[in-house]
Design a protein that fits this description.
heterodimer, A: alpha+beta, 2 domains, 4 helices, about 25% strand, B: mainly beta
């Protein structure tokens, strides 16, 4: 097995053909632009001029003709998969991607990351509400607040009381945060 | 945004808005959160968290489950402070589990599961 592993790695490296090491939002490298935002399994993305490739440790992407289909999400992830690492292990039979000329120096392929909103997924509503209701929250400065959707469930200087009230209201996993005083002369650091 | 739960009592969980802090060697949460998760705060190993002002925050280490909607589930030993802190920190122990990038000018950050 120890002997086999380097051979596998060598073969993988040999498959790294002319993939641009471009890393960043919306860019696949290879002169192609990624403009979609939906990485859910089964998503189809029209992608002309690229007949075939199977990439990925976390997400398997396959485009048999002119479509690109997200076939498999990474384990442990849920319906929203918006950060994807694609390893540039192309199938040997795959034609060269167009507009390429740079070999991936890392040997690991490229990381593609979708533009993220500041508050994706969990507690998105609550975070959006906090952003848009900063003035409302000022009355709770130096207190802990439990927010559920757009409703303030409880507020108190004692966070345990806030937690207990939220649980009493049937919230299984309360979102409780501290409202820091606003002062433009204060610069915040971790500790 | 993370959902933090007690591995021994997964039904006890909290949603925590924690700050990414590459200057912190370890993650630090409020001690009251440990108590509400059913953990006995003082049972954990003691750690002192040194601040930039030479003061220390005493904490106790407890292993918790962290769930991020896009990244999945992690287990992490987190320090829970004995004094109240105003913001919870995800330190380099969390960074060790994921890959993180910042584009401050665009107010964006990026996460994936490649450590």
């Amino acid at each position: 097995m120890a002997v086999l592993q380097p051979a596998i790695e060598d073969e993988r490296k040999a498959r790294l053909t002319n993939i641009s090491p471009t890393i960043g939002v919306g860019s696949l490298g290879c002169g192609l632009t990624m403009s979609w935002t939906d990485w859910r399994v089964g998503t189809e993305i029209r992608f002309p001029d690229v007949p075939h490739a199977t990439l990925g440790e976390f997400v398997s992407i396959h485009w048999p003709t002119d479509r690109l289909v997200v076939e498999q999400g990474p384990s442990g992830m849920h319906s929203r998969v918006d950060t994807v690492t694609i390893f540039a292990g192309r199938e040997p039979s795959a034609p060269r991607l167009p507009n390429t000329g740079v070999t991936d120096p890392s040997g690991r392929g490229m990381t593609l990351t979708e533009r993220r909103s500041p508050a994706p997924g969990l507690r998105e509503r609550e975070l959006e509400w906090r952003r848009t209701h900063a003035e409302t929250l000022r009355q709770f400065e130096n207190e802990w607040v439990a927010l559920e959707g757009e409703e303030i469930i409880a507020h108190n200087r004692d966070p345990v009381q806030v937690f207990e009230e939220a649980r009493r209201r049937g919230i299984r996993s309360p979102y409780i945060f501290y409202v820091e005083p606003t002062d433009e002369n204060i610069v915040r650091i971790g500790l | 945004m993370l959902r933090v739960s007690n591995p021994a009592q997964p039904d006890l969980s909290l949603d925590v808005d924690a700050y990414l802090d590459s200057g912190a060697q370890r993650s630090l949460f409020n001690g009251w959160r440990a108590q509400t998760l059913g953990l006995n705060l003082l049972d954990g190993e003691t750690k002192l968290y040194g601040s930039t002002s030479s003061s220390y925050v005493e904490a106790r280490l407890h292993r918790v489950n962290l769930h991020h909607e896009n990244l999945g589930d992690f287990e992490l030993e987190v320090g829970f402070s004995l004094v109240q802190i105003q913001r919870e920190l995800l330190g380099r122990d969390f960074f060790n589990l994921v890959q993180i990038g910042f584009r401050e000018r665009q107010l964006e950050y990026y996460l994936n599961t490649t450590p």
